[in-house]
Design a protein that fits this description.
about 750 residues, alpha/beta, GIY-YIG endonuclease, Arc Repressor Mutant, subunit A, Rossmann fold, 6 domains, 6-stranded parallel β-sheet, 22 helices, globular, binds adenosine-5'-diphosphate, binds zinc ion
């Protein structure tokens, strides 16, 4: 049989014999112990072999030594992995590695059978029982007969109580769930008991929220819903109440957010409703913690506990079962796309596949839906349903957007980074006890340096990008590469002409902070960017300080726009919007408008109305026009019409093959050879091959990068990204490349 071990670096399975044992031997999905090169490993049985593969014929085949855990992955979960592997044109084992928590196989072998069990305890005096259903009262009486305490598994399997009854009682605080180690003689409680009554109660919904919630409840299993509502319209409240219903039906819920910075807020809101049924899964956890969450999900599936799992994109693979609902918040966000390593999946696509296989419903939420999801709601074959929350809670008005034409500022002799209009607005901030957020598209001090004598920019020695100037609070400056993290002293000579005189260009967050401090000395400032939010709780801590009123202005990069809810913020400003507008990318218009609208959503969430100021040299840009009009839907319609007309994504398919190698010539040769070998197959399927060509940033961290763009035939109604590509399988493609040249296949690249 085929056993997948994490030892297989190239993502392959190893062959073992299934010894005839009394327990019936290992089956697909079991976790087993095997021997490889004299060492024990745990591995996952991923397949049976009818015939031995050629490479092991004639060699001794070792037996599987022990079954460590039966059905460690379910058949349905394996099917999902197969789906993803197929859609992403990636081998099965590579896909498995990316889906399972890092170290999952190894950990399991070390810690053995330290399993735990769930017990339910009656909570005395937790409230009146008058309003309970007959079945709920039965359960409480039943527990009383068992000394107020019984194993969850026994309640479900032996005594026949449904999961819905149990979670309903838990939610009312009448039952408490306690974990105990199976192997420990004494009672040992893990974690906090769920007895503390939930802090936050669900609110009466607005009529729009009611309609949305009802539609979610009525939706067919496997269907997709798009909840479109501006920030502050009450989407999260809908998620929470939809989740509560799933739990009452005994099903688990998966809640995804695009970025780790958004997780704490979502976890807090879920915990206050669902207590210890909430688990987390994201890159801010250690490997051990991720394994622990994974295990908890497996146990919950076995024992009939319904969980609410909150996480970033990789959480889409958590083994929840039965799964009733997947919520994907901020569904338009490009962080849902995995760029590397392979599989280059989009969590939204995986969630859709998962929903249709498992019968869960997929609820996408956004204030600025992606073109793809919007199309799925409007196209007769798209199969998604649109739900709208057209107003903010309390009918708070959306902020007014004003453009500041920086050309006029300049013409009137005002050469500052910060326009007079913005200055005036900031000056009044303090007396009104209000706060502002200021978006600067770049971090660092200056965007780059250029040589005064030859005009060339100072580049990173390892990448084809300009170095950014950073400044320490002591005033010391250094240069940094935002791609490979190379650092150097700014005093070095120009690599082109040897001059030592440089001129700085472009302002980053640090420079804007300094400028603000100079001109508005009494404003208190905080910086929110990649550099100032390091560490596990970096985001949260900074936002908490700002929310507590430690500063008047928060200056930050794009991450400012995402999800924070700060009632005293009445002004959102963008310096140099042009840096966001003029990018040579198919989706740049969409992404820029999404970002600006999200940012606008930060202002005016409290009592005071909000305002948005956008500084630009190009106020007539269509994206800014749509921003001022606040008509996102019009933008989507225009954009879709253009793409349909031009046969562009999603009305055709694109696939990017990205190669990286040690030298430009080796990589170019490899790319050319690869192109020659796949061209015929592509063309006969109606696809075009564009390239090979150097990647837009042709060198990163000393590796030379080339790419091949594959373009599929036009398609009236939007392409299905899950259908197979006219390409040889991933291992065959890899075999066409020399050693040292790596390959990534991106079947639906976001950036084109
Ligand atoms: P979104 O997720 O769309 O940004 P939220 O669900 O966070 O919106 O709601 C915005 C604010 O309004 C939150 O403070 C939330 O607690 C509150 N809220 C949501 N729904 C209601 C409701 N039905 N009644 C009163 N307040 C609500
Ligand atoms: Zn020079
Ligand atoms: Zn670099």
């Amino acid at each position: 049989m085929q056993v997948w071990l994490e030892a297989g670096s190239e993502g392959q399975a190893f062959t073992y014999a299934n010894a005839n044992r009394p327990d019936g031997g290992a089956r697909v999905g079991d976790l087993v112990r095997v021997r490889l090169q004299g060492r024990h490993h745990s591995g996952l049985v991923v397949g049976h072999l009818e015939r031995l593969p050629a490479d092991v014929r004639g060699k001794t085949i070792l037996p599987v030594e022990a079954v460590l855990q039966r059905a460690a992955v379910t058949p349905a979960w394996q099917e999902l992995i197969r789906d993803v592997a197929g859609a992403c044109h990636t081998g099965l084992f590579r896909t498995l590695r990316s889906a399972l928590p890092p170290g999952w196989l190894g950990q399991r072998a070390r810690s053995g059978e330290g399993r735990r069990q769930w017990w339910l305890e009656r909570v005395e005096g937790a409230g009146e029982e008058a309003s309970l259903t007959a079945r709920q009262r039965d359960l409480l009486a039943h527990l009383r007969r068992h000394g107020d305490r019984r194993r969850l598994q026994d309640l479900v399997r032996r005594d026949g109580f449904g999961r819905g009854v149990i979670s309903a009682l838990e939610e009312r605080g009448l039952l408490r769930r306690v974990a105990e180690r199976v192997d420990s003689p004494a009672r040992q409680t893990l974690g906090r008991a769920s007895g503390d009554p939930p802090v936050e109660v669900s609110r009466p919904l607005t009529p729009y929220q009611e309609t949305a919630l009802a539609a979610i409840g009525e939706a067919q299993p496997g269907s997709v819903l798009l909840l479109w509502g501006v920030t502050g319209a009450g989407k999260t409240e809908v998620y929470l109440q939809a989740a509560a219903r799933e739990r009452q039906a005994g099903r688990s819920v998966l809640m995804l957010a695009p970025e780790i910075g958004l997780i704490p807020q979502l976890v807090d809101r879920c915990r206050s409703r669902f207590g210890d049924a909430v688990v987390e899964y994201h890159s801010g956890l250690s490997n051990g913690q991720r394994v622990e969450t994974w295990r908890r999900c497996l146990e919950a599936a076995r024992e009939g506990e319904s969980l609410v799992a909150v996480g970033t994109r990789s959480a889409v693979f958590l083994p929840l079962d039965p799964l009733g609902l997947i919520v994907l918040d901020e569904e338009h966000d490009s962080a849902y796309k995995q760029e590397s390593p392979m599989p280059c999946y989009h969590a939204r696509d995986v969630a859709r596949q998962r929903a249709s296989r498992s019968g869960a419903r997929l609820l996408l939420g956004s204030a600025t839906p992606s073109l793809e999801s919007w199309l799925a709601c409007h196209d007769p074959g798209g199969g998604a349903r649109l739900l709208r929350l057209p107003e903010r809670i309390g009918a708070r008005p959306l902020p007014e957007v004003r453009l500041v034409d920086m050309r006029l500022e300049l013409a009137e002799g005002h050469r500052r980074l910060i326009s007079r209009a913005l200055m005036g607005r900031l000056e009044r901030l303090k007396e009104r006890q209000e706060q502002a957020v200021v978006l600067v598209p770049r971090r660092g001090y200056h965007a780059f340096l250029s040589c005064r004598s030859c005009g060339e920019a100072v580049l990173c020695p390892h990448c084809d990008v300009a170095l950014t100037v950073h400044r320490h609070s002591s005033g010391r400056e250094w240069l940094r590469c935002h791609w490979c993290d190379h650092r150097q002293d700014p005093g070095d000579r120009c690599g082109h002409c040897g001059s030592t005189a440089f001129k700085p260009f472009g302002a980053g967050t640090q420079r804007v902070m300094e400028q603000l401090a100079e001109e508005l000395g009494d404003l208190r400032l905080l910086r929110f960017d990649h550099d100032s939010t390091r560490g596990r709780d970096g985001h949260r801590r900074l936002l908490e300080r700002f929310a507590a009123g430690e500063a008047d202005v928060l200056v930050g990069t794009q991450m400012l726009a995402k999800g924070m809810d700060l009632p005293r913020v009445t002004l959102a400003a963008v310096l140099a919007a042009d840096g966001l507008l003029h990018r040579p990318d198919l989706r740049s218009g969409e992404q820029c408008l999404q970002l600006l609208l999200q940012l606008a959503g930060r202002a005016g969430r409290g009592e005071q109305p909000g305002e948005v100021l956008v500084q630009t040299y190009c106020p007539e840009h269509p994206v800014l026009r749509h921003l001022v009009d606040g008509r996102y839907e019009r933008f989507l319609e225009e954009e879709l019409a253009q793409r349909r007309h031009g046969g562009l994504v999603p009305f055709s398919r694109a696939c990017l093959l990205r190669l990286a190698g040690p030298t430009a010539s080796a990589t170019a040769t490899a790319a050319t050879t690869l192109a020659e070998r796949i061209r015929a197959g592509l063309e006969s399927a109606g696809w075009a091959l564009i390239g090979p060509a150097p990647a837009p940033v042709a060198r990163v961290a000393g590796r030379s990068r080339w790419q091949l763009l594959l373009h599929g035939p036009a398609h009236e109604r939007g392409e299905d990204t899950g259908s197979p590509l006219p390409l040889p399988a991933e291992p065959e493609l890899r075999a066409m490349l020399p050693r040292g040249v790596s390959l990534a296949i991106d079947p639906d690249p976001l950036a084109l």
